[in-house]
What does this fold into?
Amino acid sequence: MLYVVIGFLFFAIVLYFLLGGADFGAGIIELFTSDDNKSRTRRTSYQAIGPIWEANHMWLIIAIVILFVGFPVIYSEICTYLHIPLLIMLMGVTARGTAFSFRNYDAVKDDKMQALYNHIFVYSSFITPLFLGITAGSVISRQVDPAADSFLTAFVFSWLNWFSVAVGFFTVALCGFLAAIYLIGEAKEQFDVKRFTKKAVIMNAAAVGFGGLVFLAAEVENVHLAHWIFGNPVSLTAVIAASMSLVLLWYLLSKGKTKVIRILAGFQVTMILVSVGYRHFPNVMMVKGGNNLSLLTNHAPAATINDLGWALLVGSLFILPALGYLYYSFQKKKEA
Amino acid sequence: MNDFLAARSQMALSLGFHIIYSCIGMVMPVFMAISHYKWIKTNDHVYKNITQAWSKGVAIFFATGAVSGTMLSFELGLLWPKFMEHAGPIFGMPFSFEGVAFFIEAIALGFFLYGWNRLNKWFHWVTGIVVGVSGVISGILVVSANSWMNSPAGFDYVNGQYINIDPLKAMFNEAWFSEALHMTIAAFAATGFAVAGIHALMILLKRNVNFHTKAFKIAIVFGAVAAILQPLSGDISAKGAARRQPAKSAAMEANYHTVPYSPLLIGGIPDTLNKKVNYGIEIPGLLSFLVYDDFKTPVTGLDKIPQQYQPNVPVTHYAFQLMVAIGMFLLLIALIYFFALWKKKEWLTKDWFFKLFVIATPLGFIAVEAGWTVTEVGRQPWIIQGVMLTSQAVTPMPGIQYSFYLFTFVYFTLSVAVVFLLSRQIKMVPELYDR
It folds into this structure.
């Protein structure tokens, strides 16, 4: 049952990255859109994410609950040493979620308030994944130091280091890329398809650039990233698969296949997560001094894991079909 | 402000904020479903307008509740990592189920909000019902997690180790039913009276009287029935607290001395130094009767509880008194309402009648906050009653007061924003719905 719970944890994280990430990305794209076209982008992304955005962010809650029920030591270590980036991320989640629903449900649609909501929405769409990425990078960065004796070393340098920050920006670029690819398929007019394609190119380039920086920063901070990714056949295959799917994606896009490419983009991001995660599984948190936290040794007692596993299995019987039907019906309505 | 106090203040603030949004998020979908049903059945457009107006409010409240809930799921660890490290596996089951229920609620809300004129009308109606039902279930589950902190079960605590963990036993601890019942009824009472009060104000101001009267009628039925049921569930809760948490119970009553024929205290200012209460009204024997069903049995007072394990008596006592006083007042208004329906139909159009409900608008939520103060402050100094002290659970990170200031700013801003948005909604009723 432990593996069922771990499976759900990864499933929730991957889905949050893909769905929540594309959702953040819609705001990032809006941020980097010229003022003339902002409202066009807003309309397309609202039609695309309006009904589903609340559900997309539920995966974060599911992942957190699995973590604190099933792996409480890992949860409490992350919360203790990465308190500050998590706090900033939470502020972003709050600002973003409320601004998005306020701008849609404000009974009076005046320019002044709408502009304020838009501002809050686009900037928090950038900050939230940045700090999510920083947190995630820090978890594997070996910079968290349980033996630290000063405020700075314990609570600041745990996340304010080249590697974590590079991962943060890499995450932002990936979110923007996911969203651009998604929006290409949602755009109704050729003009918008072209615009989103251009955005996808830029985000793709940014992801490659920041990806390179992540490797560079890993060398600086002594994180064995290259070894994790290129040192074993599974990770290597995943990286190659990700690269090949990227080539295929651009080829299909040039052929005008605007819907199927989102599957490839999702696949690509999933492969990146797999390639990084595989080598050090079951260790999920690398800390200074080498007392890494493993999912296989730091889990809750068997009775809890067992009940949690059943709850997740039974719960997903309700959630997954309902969620699938939600996506399906709104996709169908849009096309009709 | 020291870190411990800052952490407690931030937690209190976050819960105090979240509880309002979750109550409304639980109850409003039920009101919506009723008015939606009436619209489908009667084809009276006013009901469609009410449903849509309410649903916009619900979207705002749901989003605010969802983000503040997300914050809380992190704050548990950010502020109380040692607590979560040990308690997570024991009391986490309700949170896992709650995650599922909340997820379903979000999916159903997506269908409901965007489903107008797109979905089959009965399917659309059912999605609204699902929002309400899963909201209520979420609420019950979260309260059940809290009840475990008051009434720990499902593990053995031996030499500082938590062993023989049974998460389901922990979930169905002794206090879960009474707490969940009390909170659910409170949510209906508070939301019912708040919504009814706002519509009553609009009726008094003669704005869209037809619209607001129909909305008022739906809300007040729930509010009034809940207000009548609440004292009964309060009695169950108080009896349980007296048995399981004598310190909390004694602080609620500011009961300093364990004596036969324990008196029930109404009002009064506790004097913590001299361990007595000034200016209160004492009714001899009534406390004993309420707790033990006989007038003589002494009820445990604070003199039987070591000083270091006593909660803050004045805060707990005042909060309790306030909650009970409001409860009684709402009960009275509820009885007047049903009496008017039954015998005095002419009252239902009188100004004084609606004024009564306008006064009651915020009271239910004040009572909810007071009740949570009783339950949380009354449990101190424990975070897990009798097992772990709150001070042992707090994060080692310094500077929590800055985090507290930040949260204060955020919640203050959000509250202002929500009030602003609601007032705009109400102002727009004539334009949007008066065709």
Summary: Strands of chain B lie at 156-158, 161-163, 264-266, 269-271, 276-278, 281-283, 382-384, 388-389. Residues 3-238+326-433 of chain B form one domain. Residues 397 and 423 of chain B are 40 Å apart (CA to CA).
